Amino acid sequence: MPARIVVIGGGVAGTLTANLLSKELRNDARVTVVDPTGMHVYQPGFLYVALGEANGRWLARDERQLLRKDVALVVEAATRVDTDASVVHLARGGTIAYDFLVLAAGARLVPEQVPGMLEGAYDFYSLDGALRLREALRSFDGGRILVGVAGIPYKCPPAPVEFTLMLEGYLRNRGVRDRSEVTLLSPLNRAFTIESASKVVQPIMERRGIKLATFFNVESVDPSAGTVESLEGEKAEYDILVLVPPHRGQRFVEESGLAGNGGWIPTDAYTLQHKDVERVFAIGDGTDLPISKSGSTAHFEAPVVASRIASLVRGTTPRESYGGRVMCFLETGDRKSTSLRFDYEHPPIPPEPSWRWHAAKWMFNRLYWVTVPQGRIPDRFGRPGKIDRSES
Amino acid sequence: MSLTVVQTLDLKGLSCPMPIVKTAKAMKQVSSGEMVEVFATDPGSVADFQAWCRSTRNTLVESDVTDGVFHYVIQKR
User: Which member of B15, B21, B44 has the closest CB to residue A217?
Assistant: First the structure.
């Protein structure tokens, strides 16, 4: 009998894992993807939508078109996993039994955790949010814009910095820069958590007159006063406030007793197996791994999970392990980008921002649909740069 | 004025900037003069805690490391 493999989540992580498994195991496995919408969303595009550089249409595709024909797709929400019975319960009352389960359902946004955020702040972490922000920016005629993070961890760590740098260029192009003030609120005393990336970004911010408010950990928003307050007791006034909403693990994961703190899944950093439950793997934004929540992480994790499950199905010893590899672009505005390539052991050494990385990012945005979900990007891509022990 | 450690945070295994964020949350809850003790494993936390305390004008009473675990005691101003 073929092994029953159920993948919950049709994002980068789930789609690629399912495709790799079905390609590898063929008739030895029956792979099913469960996804509540059946639409695959390219989330890195939200940033461009918010700044009017892209419309929402190219951001979503039918998940069915991205999966191999022999992968089954169930368009329904998973509501609970019963690990004793090895079944997944679905929203309309059905169940799916599994031999191996891959949790790839991502993170959820919980803006309601920050008082005043829903009423007082914009975000670009959903298509709706990005469209609302785009409208607000279009009618913006000068004033103070604050960009910050309302909860950690969040997806795509460079996004607030990228947004700030691109926003500054946007305001210049619209001719309202001279009557605008742009400030990045940072939880630390630098622009970006990774020190080497901060060193690249901060001089650019200074040159462009973007302010940096350090150790500003957002606690609450007062929409009527137009202020945001930090845990450190500081208060800042805004005309437009853009906050990355707090994130949590998916509710069904928590309600199935599979989650730890924050709803994140306790995951082995190397095998990507659930720390407490046999035959259950976790991948992508939902894990508790101390590494970026990003599509790139999922992209590099998927081959490891697929290979390990394939070995287990065949009764051989799994050999592949994940080393924490991540590769992402960081847009620095004015059509330039740099890149961050790192893993558990090696911090990134970002190159000088150039139009080449920006062009690579644009190409990647365009080619994503026909490369990443299908596993067509070679595995060598994005290995970290040379080791530099002086960074931490 | 009390001079005791009123809260201990185990932030081992968390990476930057989580230790600072969690500590900032805890410090918000305690009263002036009270102390919060933190255990962390993120090597970047040494510089971060020094800078955070300077910036927020809280006092970093202790900062040491044993077997890869960093230990901080911070007193609220």
Answer: B21
